[in-house]
Amino acid sequence: MQKSLAIFVFSLFMLCFGATAQKVTYSEPDPDDARTLNFEIVGRMNGNILIYKNYRDLHYMAIYDAEMRMTEKNRLDFLPEKLINVEFIQYPDCIYFFYQYQKKSIYYAMVAKLDPSGKKIGQPIQLDTTAEVNYASTSKIYTILNSENKQQILLFKIGTKNDRAHVITTCLYNKDLQLQKRSKIVVPMPERNDFLTEFTVDNDGDLACIKGSGTAQNDNINKVSLLTKAANADAFVSKDLNIAGLYLDDIRLKVDNINKHYLVTSFYSKARRGNVDGLYYALYDKTLGKELSTLKTTFSEEFRADAKNDGNSKTAFNDFFLKNIVLKRDGGFFIAAEAAYSTSRGNTLNRWDYLYGSPYFASPLDYYSYNSQLGYYPWGRYNQFNNNNVTRYFADNVILLSYDAAGKLEWSNVIRKTQYDDNTDNFIGYTILNTGDKAHFIFNVQDKRAMILSDQSIAPDGQIDRNPTFKNLDKGYDFMPRHAKQVGARQIIIPCQYRSATCFAKVEFN
C-alpha cells in the first residue's frame, strides 16, 4: 500500500513538473555575425526556422533545423547595397520579402519571392516608385499591410508636402501579387495638429485608419474620425466618433473580420494633459456604416493602487501604453498595456515627449513613416557610441483587461515586474506565447547580477499563475524576449546574446 502510494505521489509530481517544464535549445553563435546585427525571425517552414540577418550591405537568410543547428546560410545577393526597410509575409510554400531603397532621387518599393530555404524564386518585382526625393532618406516611405487571412496585401505612402492636404497613394494586391486597385486620394487636413495613424486592411481589402486632431503638438487628442476606403473605391468615407468631451491618448484601431466591426481604443483623461482616468472604446459596424456603441471604463482606486509600483495613485497609468489588443470570436476583446518610460541625464521622458502619446509615430520630411510595430522599433533602440549620455529604459507592470461583446469589463489583473537597462531596451519588455488554454507572458527578471527568464500565464477567467523561472538555462545567455516570435502551438524562438554575439533559443512548452 505504501509502495503504491509512493508511486502515485511520484507520478503526480512528474505530471505537475512536466506540465510546466520547458525545453530550451540554443543555436551556436555565428562567428560572422556582428554585435550590431539586424535580424528578424521570419518563421517555421518544413520543420526549419528561418531567420533574416543583415549587417551593413550583407543580407542573409539563415536556416536552422529542429535542433537549432544552422544548416544553410543563403546570401540575398540580388539586393542593392543599402536597404531602408525590409518586411516579410510568410505563406505555407513561400515568403514575400518586401524591401525599399533609394537610388539617386528615386525611391523604390520592391518585393522578391523566396522559397523555404530563403532562395529567390524568379526576379524581384517593382511595386511602386517615388520620384524627386531630393534628400537622402533614412526612413521608409512605403508601408506594407496584410489582411488577417493574408489574401490581401496593401502598399501605401502618405505625402505630406502640403500641410493642409495629405496625399495617400494605395496599391492593393492579392496573395499572388496581382495588382487589384491603385488609388491616389487627397485627405483634407484643415487643422494644424491633424494627423493620420493606425492603418489596417481587412479580409475584404478595405482600408481603414484614424484621423485625429490635438489641441496642440504633443498634446491630447480631442477629435477622432474613422476613415474607411472600400477595396475598389477611390475615396475615403469619414465618420466622426463620439468621444463625449474626453481627451484621448495612445489611440489604437483593430479590425474584427468575423463580425465586420472596427474597434477603436484609447486611454483617456477628463482634462487636457491630465492624468489617465480610464479606457475609451468605440465599436463601428462596417456593414451598417455607423457607430454601434461608445463606452468607457474608469479605473478604480483599487486598480490604480494595484497597477502602480509606488508613488501617487492618481498618476498610476500615465506611463502605460497599449501593447496588445486581441479580439474574441464573440465580439469581445482583451487588452494588455505596459508601463514604459526612459530617463536621460536625470530627465524622465514620458508620453508627453512623444507625438500624441505614441512612441513609434514619426513624420520625416515629405512622407509619413508609419511603423505598425506597436511601441517599439524593429530591432530595439540601442546606443553604443554616445556613452557620455546614458539613457536608461524602464518597462514595468502590465495591466490586463478583458471585455465582453457588450463592452462590459469582465475582469482586470496586473502582472508585476520592474525592468530597466542602460542604452538599450532589447532585454526588457515581454512577449506572449498563446498555447490555446493560456497566454504565457515571458520576460526577464533581475536575479542578483543576472537576468532570468520568467513565465506568468493567464487563464481565460483572468487567473494568473506565477510559474517558476525557467530552469537549467545555460549561463551567459541574455534573452531578448520582446523580439521573440511564436512559431508553433507551444514553440517560440527567442533571440539572445552570448559573449556579445547574437544567437537564438527555441523554447518548447510541454
Proportion of strand residues: over 45%
Gyration radius (Cα, Å) is 23 Å
Give the CA-based shape: globular
Number of strands: 35
What is the mean predicted local confidence, pLDDT? 87
Care to give the gist of this entry?
The chain is mainly beta and 510 residues long.
Structural overview:
- The chain has 510 residues and is mainly β.
- 5% of the residues lie in helices and 52% in strands.
- Among the domains are: 33-138; 434-457 and 464-510, no CATH class.
- The protein contains two helices and 35 strands.
- The strands form eight sheets. Strands 22, 23, 24, 25, 26 and 27 form a six-stranded antiparallel beta sheet that branches. Strands 1, 32, 33, 34 and 35 form a five-stranded antiparallel beta sheet that branches. A four-stranded antiparallel beta sheet has the order 2-3-4-5, with no helix packed on it.
- A hairpin with a 5-residue loop joins strand 22 and strand 23.
Which descriptors apply to this entry?
6-stranded antiparallel beta sheet; mainly beta; 5-stranded antiparallel beta sheet; globular
Set down the secondary structure blueprint.
Blueprint: H1 2-20, E1 22-26, E2 38-45, E3 48-55, E4 58-64, E5 70-75, E6 85-90, E7 95-103, E8 106-114, E9 120-130, E10 143-146, E11 152-159, E12 165-174, E13 179-188, E14 194-201, E15 207-214, E16 221-229, E17 237-240, E18 247-256, E19 261-269, E20 278-285, E21 290-298, H2 301-307, E22 320-327, E23 333-344, E24 347-349, E25 391-403, E26 409-415, E27 419-422, E28 430-434, E29 439-447, E30 450-458, E31 464-466, E32 477-479, E33 485-488, E34 491-498, E35 501-509
Antiparallel strand pairs: 1-35, 2-3, 3-4, 4-5, 6-7, 7-8, 8-9, 10-11, 11-12, 12-13, 14-15, 15-16, 16-17, 18-19, 19-20, 20-21, 22-23, 23-24, 23-25, 25-26, 25-27, 28-29, 29-30, 30-31, 32-34, 33-34, 34-35
